[in-house]
Design brief:
Rossmann fold, elongated, alpha/beta, ten-stranded mixed β-sheet, single chain, two-stranded antiparallel ribbon
């Protein structure tokens, strides 16, 4: 059973995009459980007694969309610090994936991370996916873009997440991408995928689990090449690797991950 946690606020459009992402997972595997969670924040606790799941239109819309897709839904309302409540719920449920909603700037196609989303990202010890708004969710086989750096552990974490997606062996294919920084000028050295041990390890991990892999190496500005490649292959989502602080279990997003997350028109997962 693949367990997802979908924390929603009161924005129905965001909540529906989160639900659509999870419903897309069920195209490949019916055994998915979704918990739709609404947290009443501390500055609104005066109305906590009057809030039920049914009074939060965004939560109801997300739950109904998932149930229409045949997904079992657990409907929950909690109160207190929002990020902490989300992380506690994910830990209690042992969720495979947290699916958060991003925000859009007015007039530009960039997702703005709210403080709650950021706090969950840097504190969660499990994959977190941002869906944003205005995203289009396709049908059929999922094509996942896996951009890796030279960190073998990070790359393997990314590959493990992809291999663990519902119905991965039958319904997922992957492009493992390595970008040679700024090497897109005339006379640049050849871009050889096999030179990068982390990229090879990620590709082999996926192939050993019967997931078709395209091995791609290009040169250029890293975030831009990741976004361009996602568009070129019509990726369903992008799976990035996070970084850990020394000594504490918090993920720090590198500048590349953050740039991709803020600019992508596709769901982006940070695996940690």
């Amino acid at each position: 059973m693949y367990r997802t946690l979908i924390p929603v606020d009161e924005n129905e459009n965001r909540a529906l995009h989160q639900a659509k992402y999870v419903a897309r997972l069920s195209d490949a595997e019916p055994d998915i459980e979704a918990t739709v969670l609404h947290v009443v924040p501390p500055d609104d606790l005066e109305r906590a007694d009057s809030v039920s799941f049914g009074t939060v239109d965004a939560a109801v819309a997300a739950a109904e969309h998932l149930e229409t897709a045949g997904i079992t839904v657990d409907r929950r309302v909690e109160e207190g610090d929002v990020a902490a409540a989300i992380i506690d719920a994910a830990d209690a449920l042992d969720s495979h994936e947290l699916v958060m909603g991003g925000r859009k700037r007015s007039g530009v196609a960039k997702v703005l991370l709210g403080s709650t989303v950021h706090d969950v990202f840097v504190s969660a010890e499990r994959p977190v996916t941002i869906t944003g708004t205005g995203m289009v969710f396709g049908e059929g086989e999922r094509h996942v873009l896996v951009p890796v750096d030279q960190g073998r552990e990070r790359a393997l974490n990314q590959a493990e997440f992809v291999a663990g997606l519902p119905g991965a062996a039958e319904n997922v294919r992957a492009t493992v991408l390595y970008v040679f920084r700024h090497q897109d000028y005339a006379g640049a050295p050849p871009h050889e995928f096999e030179e990068i041990g982390a990229a090879v390890a990620a590709a082999e991990y996926l192939e050993e689990r019967d997931i078709p892999v395209e091995r791609t190496a290009v040169g250029g500005e890293i975030a831009r090449k990741i976004l361009d490649t996602a568009s070129d292959v019509d990726a369903s989502s992008i799976v990035m690797g996070g970084r850990k602080r020394t000594g504490v279990q918090k993920v720090i997003m590198g500048s590349i991950s953050q740039d991709v997350l803020l600019s992508s028109e596709r769901p982006v997962t940070i695996t940690g």
